[in-house]
Each structure stands twice: as structure tokens, then as C-alpha cells.
Write a structure and sequence with these properties.
The protein is built from ten helices and five strands, in the order αααββαβαααααββα. It is of the alpha+beta class. The protein has two domains: 55 residues, no CATH class; 178 residues, Glutaredoxin.
């Protein structure tokens, strides 16, 4: 385990400030002696840094304790931020009737995925999402197109959303995530054409429609408001799974089971 240099610097500054507050050095003024403590001169600062360095070299385990405490604090802050964001955006996330989705539209547990067709982890995660839908007939999977990796990503998103206007969203979604290599307008159109039953002239026209552009812009704004900057990002009710862990299917199933047992505070 390593500690980022910036965090180390912050730790040192914090320790110096603490030493100053308690009047660590003989002759240093304390807050009780005057309104503002006297600033350390260069000699005192050098002495403090030497003491800190010597202490950390003799007690390196302190760095691990600091790292652990920092990570715990960040997790708490992120959890609180997510909870507030879910409360604010619950309707858009879970209850929008016209949102792209798969599985059971009336399912009892919503699973939301933010994804990008050029995201390798999204491609890897798809098999687990498909298995969840196949194995659980009462899950509602809400798909949020978040094309953030390239121009081709947005082109592919437009193809998929245009296919949705012909009730072919899930087959198109599956086909685009199965493409090897870069996904763009050309490769996406070629993939969905193979599905069959799609009016390709209409699809190409619909790619530039207000409905398609509006969906992409809405999801981008939603992701920005929630602080979601990477894909894939899953929400199972009020529980988050960032990325595509190796045990994704087990995590999805576990969260679904927990929500069915304990309920969801936002969905």
C-alpha cells in the first residue's frame, strides 16, 4: 500500500499546524497567549520537518494508519454524497417510464447502468447483466447511455437510441457491445443492420432526432450532477457498484436480494 505524495504533504502540513497550536517549540506563542500564534521561522520549520521525517522513518506503520483513516473518511463522504444525489434524482433514475430499459419494465428492483459502447469494462460486464436478466424475471434494468470516451461512442449511442424508436433497443445494445475494436457510426450501423427488421433509412434519420439528442443530454447532465465520471457504473436501488468487478453478477444478485428483503429508501 502506498500513500500519494500530495496526501503525505497534507499530512505533514496538518501535523505542523497541530504542533503550532499546542506550542510545541519552547518559546512559541500559543493561541491562549495572543489572538494569532506567531508564524514559525525557517529554522523552526526545518526542525519540525526533521522531527516528522525521523518519527515516520522510525514508525512507518503510521503512514498505513493515515492511509486507512483517509480511505474510510473518503468512503463516508462518498456514501453521503451518493445518498443525497439518489434522493434528488430518484425519479429520473428509477421511475422514468420512457427510459431505455431491459428485463421486466414492472420489475420490483431497478438496476441502473451508465455505460459507453467503447468501454472495455462495459463490454466485459454485459454478460453478467444479461445473465441477471435471464435468471431473474423480476428485475428492471435501466440503461443510461453515457458516451464519454470518444466521438464514436456518441455515434454508437445515437444508433442504439434510434433503434429503440423501432423497438429494437435491446438487440441493438447487445450487438454494439459485441463489436470488437472501436465502435463508431460505421461499425454500429453495420452491426444493427444484421439484426433484421429495422428500417435503416428511418434509423439514420432518427439518429439526429430531438428524442435521441435529448436522451443523451439528459443522461450526461444526470451523471454530472451525481459525480459519475466513469463507466460502467451500476446502481442497484440505493447501492452503487462502480466499475466491473470480477464478481459483478454475484454483487448484483446480492444487492437485489438485500433490497427485496430490506427495501429501498429511494426507489
Amino acid at each position: 500500500m502506498t500513500l500519494h505524495i500530495g496526501r503525505l504533504a497534507g499530512f505533514r502540513r496538518g501535523l505542523i499546524a497541530t504542533l503550532a497550536a499546542v506550542g510545541f517549540f519552547a518559546g512559541a506563542s500559543t493561541p491562549m497567549a495572543q489572538d494569532k500564534p506567531a508564524a514559525f521561522d525557517d529554522t523552526q520549520k526545518a526542525a519540525i520537518e526533521t522531527i516528522i521525517k525521523d518519527y515516520l522513518l522510525k514508525n512507518p506503520e503510521v503512514m498505513l494508519e493515515v492511509q486507512s483513516a483517509l480511505e474510510s473518511k473518503m468512503e463516508e463522504l462518498q456514501s453521503a454524497k451518493l445518498k443525497a444525489a439518489l434522493q434528488t434524482h430518484a425519479a429520473e433514475l428509477f421511475r422514468r417510464a420512457d427510459a431505455p430499459m431491459a428485463g421486466n419494465p414492472k420489475g420490483d428492483v431497478p438496476v441502473v447502468e451508465f455505460f459507453d459502447y467503447n468501454c472495455g469494462y462495459c463490454k466485459r460486464a454485459f454478460s453478467d447483466v444479461a445473465k441477471l436478466i435471464e435468471q431473474d424475471s423480476n428485475v428492471k434494468v435501466i440503461l443510461k447511455e453515457l458516451p464519454i470516451l470518444s466521438k464514436g461512442s456518441e455515434e454508437a449511442a445515437r444508433v442504439a437510441l434510434a433503434a429503440r424508436l423501432q423497438d429494437k433497443y435491446w438487440p441493438a445494445h447487445r450487438a454494439l457491445l459485441a463489436i470488437r475494436g472501436e465502435v463508431n457510426e460505421q461499425t454500429a450501423l453495420k452491426a444493427v443492420e444484421k439484426i433484421g427488421g429495422i428500417d435503416m433509412a428511418k434509423l439514420k434519420k432518427d439518429m439526429a432526432s430531438d428524442a435521441v439528442s435529448g436522451e443523451i443530454n439528459t443522461v450526461r447532465q444526470l451523471a454530472q450532477s451525481m459525480g459519475i465520471q466513469g463507466t460502467p457504473h451500476f446502481l442497484v436501488g440505493d447501492r452503487a457498484i462502480p466499475g466491473a468487478p470480477g464478481n459483478l453478477l454475484d454483487q448484483l444478485k446480492g444487492h437485489v436480494a438485500d433490497i427485496r428483503k430490506s427495501g429501498c429508501s429511494v426507489c
